[in-house]
Structure formats: C-alpha cells, structure tokens
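Async update (no meeting this week)

Hi team, since we skipped the sync, here's where things stand on the single-chain job. The sequence we agreed to prioritize is pasted below, unchanged from the tracker. I ran it this morning and attached the output directly underneath so nobody has to dig for it. Comments welcome in thread, and please keep replies under the output.
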Amino acid sequence: MLYRVTDPTGHITHFESASSDRSKAIIAVSISSTFTIPRGSFMLPTFCDLHLHAPQFLYQGTGLHLPLMKWLDEYAFKAEERIDGDHDLARRVYQRLAERLIENGTGAVLLFGTIKEETNLVLASVMQQAGIRALVGKLSMDISTRPTYTEHSASASLASAESFINNIEALMAPLPPHQRLVQPVLTPRFVPTCSNELLEGLGQLSARTGVMIQSHLAEARDEVDWVRQERGIDDFEVFEKANLLTPRTVQAHCTYLTPSEMSRLAEHGTSIAHCPLSNAYFSARRLPLREALHAGVKIGLGTDIAGGYSANVMGSMRWAVGVARMREGARIEGENVGPKEDAENAHAETNLGLDWLESMYMATRGGAEALGLECGVFKVGAPFDAQCLKLFDPETGRGVGALDFLDLESGSGDMTLSLEIVEKWWCLGDSRNRTDMWVQGRRLGQKTIV
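Output:
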C-alpha cells in the first residue's frame, strides 16, 4: 500500500510505501487526519474530458439522426442562443453539468461555451465554485447560418475574445494561485464559422498572451467538403496558415487527416481530443488512433456533449477500445482502414487495437498532458486530483453497483485487488463505485484541504 501527504496548497509532498520508515513516522503524528483506502477500493487520478460543449448539455441525448452541418442548425445554434439570452437558464444548466462531471469522476474539462462573454463568465464561475479544473472557451465566430447567432465581424469577435481573457484573469486574481482552477481558451468554433481574418487574429492573440486554443479539425465529410469548396484548401491548411496549430492547441476529431497531415500535427505539437462516440454519429471515418500515436501526437479523450450522448469519460474509454479493435479486425481481414494513403503506409502490419489500460492513460494523464496540466498522475509535486473507487465490500465480497464477484462472495476468491478485478470495473463500473473525489487536495463538496 502507498501513502501520500499533501501540503496546504493540495500538492503531493510524500508518496511512497506505507510500510517505509518515513511513512510510518508521518502516520504516527497525523493519524487523526489520515484517509485510509478501504479494502476492495482503489485510487485513480480524476478523468480529464478534452472536449465538451457546455450549453449543449441542455439537449444531450437528442437529435443524433442528422448529419453534422444540419445538426448544428437544428439543435446546437438554437440551444446556444437560448442560453445566451437567459442567464438563469445558463446557471441551471451549468450547475447540473458540474454535478454530473463530479458524479462521473471528471476533475478537469476543456469546455466550449457560447458567443456572449457574460454567459461564459457564468460558466467559469460555476465551475470554479464546484471545484472543477475548467478551461473555458468563449466561442469566436463571425460567420453563421443563423443570423442572430454570430459576432458579425472579425474585429468584434477578436475584441470580445481579448476582453474575455482579461475578465477571467480578473475573476481568478483574488484567489491564491493554487485555487485558480479556471483558465480562458481561445475557441474558433471551426473553419466554416470563422473568416480568415478572425482566425489569423486569434493566432496572433494566442501568440501574444500564451492562451490555449481549441477547435474542431477534419471532423466530417460535409464539413471537410464545405471548407474545400469555400476556401479552396483543407481546414488543416487554414489553421496552419493562421498559426493556430501550436503546442497550446487541442483539436477535436481529426478523423479526415491524412498520414502526412497527422505527422505535421505532431511536428506542431498540437493535441487531439479523441471523441469516439460522436465520431460514430457524425464522421464516416474512425480516427487512425494507433497511427496518430506512432506519429507522436498527444491524445486524450472527449465526451463531446452533445454530439456524444454521455458526459461520462468511462463511455469514451470503452468506445475508444471498441472502435480501435474494429479497425484492427478490418486490417486483419484485409479491408481498408482509412484513407488510401493509410493502406500503403509503414504501419500496415501494426496492431491497430487499443487495450483498456491504454484508454485509462488517455482518460487521465494523456488528457492532462494535452492541456499542459500537472494532474493525472500520483507523484511528489503533482496536485492531488483523485477519485476513490469501491469495487466490493471486504466483509461480504459482494460487488458494488453493477459488479458481481461470485467467488469472493462464496469465500473462495482472493480479495487482493488485482488488474483482473479492476478490468471488471472498467467494463461494468458506474458512478455507484465512486465514493470520494478530490481536486487540488480538496475533497469536493467540502471546504477543507485534506
């Protein structure tokens, strides 16, 4: 068993075996404030959701029968405009979203908001109060199929983006540095809603301020075709020319990138938010995940509410493994697993599958690395962002929630928490297994640092 200690700022100062002399000495003088992981439970870093549209939580789980561009017109833009016009509704939606994120073990999240600055400040305030690490993106879009939902000009959009950055900094300024959980993110929605002037301005603003960037890249056939028709080049080149592919950038989806573009993405240091569930609905292609990893691209997982119907990162992990295994099956059967260039490239004999442990990494440390955060790992100096998961009752051997351990219940099984037992949780577990959660050393729902 390992023992850890956090300082008053919520950073880990000691992490080693509980049986070591130093751990024993620390325990002896701090037994009253010690949290002991119960037998049958384990600790895991909190999940990191790399792609979630906060206002779309209003209608999650509906409207998934349409292609992307029509879906945006019929559902997304209307819902976002409605929330921009009703801050009471916005606060209710965002508070419930925060509750669901905590329920699902998400401690850090990269959020798309709406176009109005004030509404995004509501979102930032709610996430800060909930104790969730949140990178909040005020949408930048000067082009729209909905005339009432646009910023109308590149200059107005850029001014609003810079004002939003300044207001988030002002919102966080009164707090000690370790309690500043919210950051602003520059958020051009995607190429079809942004003029070249706006994109170039955002690239310059990010370079000047160091603020992160998020958007959608090579997401779906109708989106890719629209960009080629209107701009004469692929959206990858549009972002590249605007200096928006940087080590501070997270691009969602990327299912239509060619192998050469994937390599260039890695050279830029840009990360991918892999959203396998929403890709199943809105993209005719699956992300070439193994090839992207081989190319050196940093990858985390996103739920993509509401293009994906679940705010639970566990669903994203399971879908990521399932989709990758289907790609590997297609490779074995000699089927084309991606663009023509993929079939001819050097990884033709590489296993394209993904195992559950790799998906756990992407859901925790992988996402944190994409965001430049120090969480997602237990080590000295890292913030203590953790969830405690109970798998079975050590007295009876009975599993918690959807888990059944019949050998343990009969007394014939080994109650040591093995990888096999944890894998069962990965496949079948849910929020009923989550007993505690901490972000920056603070147990959520409480005011004290533990």
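Quick observations from my side:
The longest strand covers residues 133-140.
The chain has one domain: 47-371.
Reply here if anything looks off.
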